[in-house]
Amino acid sequence: MTTWKDFYENYDNWAENTVLSRISSLQDIGPSAEVIDCANCISEQVAEKIVRKAISMGMTFTPDDIFELNGMVSESLAKEILERYMKTGKPISVTEIQNLDALVSQESIDMTVLYDMQIGLRFTPKQIIELDGYVSEAVLTEALRRSNTKVSRDELEELDGIVDEKLLRKIDKKQKTHVFDEDDDWDEYDDSYDYADTSGKKPGLLSQLGALYVASEIDKRIFGDKDKKKKK
User: Fold this and answer.
1) Exposure pattern of 49-62 as b/e (b: 16+ CB <10 Å)?
2) pLDDT tens figures, 181-230
3) What is the pLDDT of residues 17-42, one digit of tens each?
């Protein structure tokens, strides 16, 4: 058996095969900062193994840790780390979401925003604008629909092209900001359905845009399968 103290003090002097062997025999694990330090000093294959070993021993890495592990672990492992973190119920900040860009897939980044909304976080119009280019239009539209903050005239103009125009027109009409021409032909925005809730039968906005799996993933992987719970 190998202690973390012995491993951390000597791993950079060992051959790769020895490092791999010692990872398998670790009887404890150090702080995440030390694990990440090791991962950044060895090959991707060894980095993956030591990160997985840490996870198997109960470590939960943060979104910032994923950023620190950039280039040292695969996208699939980064996604696994992210999903594990989301089981903690702790929020993921806008900056952390932005830092995940290019490290995980678009679906995973969308899932972080839906996760934040599931745990009760509400995004301001400014934050939604900041997430443009990182998060899909469907998810940003849902974030704005759930926002409890008044949207300024300037924000309405900036949000045009970022979220569904029908929702913007509804907000514009309600707030009487007159950003959009009321004489234009457009369909009334239907906000009677929770587009991030996939438990109902009615197809929502995410489904229409071919991204329904995003919301279903967060329900099943983070909060459990609702259908299975009902059957028990």
Assistant:
1) bbbebbbeeebebb
2) 765 555 555 555 454 444 443 344 344 333 444 444 544 555 555 444 44
3) 999 999 999 999 999 999 999 999 98
SS3 content of the chain, % helix, strand, coil (to 5): 55, 5, 40
Residue 229: both structure tokens together = 């719970």
Q: Which CA distances in Å does 207 have to 38, 196, 210?
A: 42, 10, 5
Q: Is the pTM of this model over 0.85?
A: no
- Nearest residue to 160 via CA among 121, 122, 113, 125: 125
Among 225, 222, 224, which residue's Cα sits nearest to residue 86? 222
Residue 91 structure tokens? 């929020």
The residues facing 104 across adjacent strands are: 101
Q: What is the rounded average pLDDT for all residues in the chain? A: 84
Is the backbone of residue 161 left (phi > 0), alpha (psi -120 to 50) or beta? left
Tell me the β-bridge partners of 90.
none
SS3 163: strand
Cα 213 off chain centre by: 14
